[in-house]
Amino acid sequence: METTTYLTFLVVVFAVLIAPGPSVTISMAHGAKFGAGRAAITGLGDISANLLQMIAAVAGLGAIISQSAILFSFIKWVGVAYLLYLGAMMILRAGRVKNQNISVPINPPSLFWHYRQGFIVAASSPKAILFYGALFPQFITPAYDLLPQFILLAATCVFLDWCIVISYGALAARAARTANGSPWIDRLGGAALITTAGFLAKTER
User: Is 89 helix (H, G, I), strand (E, B) or coil?
Assistant: First the structure.
């Protein structure tokens, strides 16, 4: 792969990933509530799902999803339902804390809980497989070995995605420290997840 081709790939991927999406939203929600370290674990779940989506795209699943309205819709609505559930739970939790009128200590969930939520949110976005399936062929040079090129492109996507997701999570954690545990953290996080679910529901093939 030529250096100019790779640098172009970097710019394209960064421009796409920097735009907030479902994975960024869940990372910010976790960062605001549990801190930047927990948001980083959520990010690991996100990039794990993304890596599987890249492999699936190269294996041809992207082409299948692009042709199957039923499969695309199933994956999309699973993601919408999960985001709505997470958002509703955050808002309800904020309401319970307010009604009790006491300071409730945070009992952090397990690291796997963060990883699992990051994974499910990322995996339930059918657009990701279509994106990677359309992106990689544009930057893979047939004259060179295909596997090393795929590994390089996939590793670049994973690294950039994780850095961006945890950066958003760290920013949310810093903002939350200023709010000092206000129930509005849960309310805003829940509203953001529900809003993201609405955008995901509008996506088309």
Answer: helix
**Residue 149 falls inside a structural domain:** yes
The residue type at 170: A
Number of domains in the chain: 1
What would the two tokens of residue 79 be? 């993601």
Does a structural domain hold residue 162? yes
At 87, is the secondary structure helix, strand, or coil?
helix
109 lies in a domain? yes
Interval 72-87 mean pLDDT: 69
Model pTM? 0.68
CB atoms within 10 A of CB 144: 11
CB 48 within 8 A of CB 60: no
Do 7 and 139 contact (CB within 8 A), yes or no? no
Q: What is the pLDDT of residue 114?
A: 92
The whole domain housing 39 covers 23-72+101-180
Q: Give φ, ψ of 99 to 5 degrees.
A: -65, -35
Q: Quick check: is 203 in a domain?
A: no
Question: What is the sign of the dihedral through the CA atoms of 23, 195, 35 and 114?
Answer: negative
Distances in Å between the Cα of 197 and the Cα atoms of 52, 126, 200 are 22, 13, 5
pLDDT tens per residue across span 93-133 = 655 544 444 344 456 788 999 999 899 888 887 777 777 87
Q: Is residue 98 exposed (0-12), middle (13-18) or buried (19+ Cβ within 10 Å)? A: middle
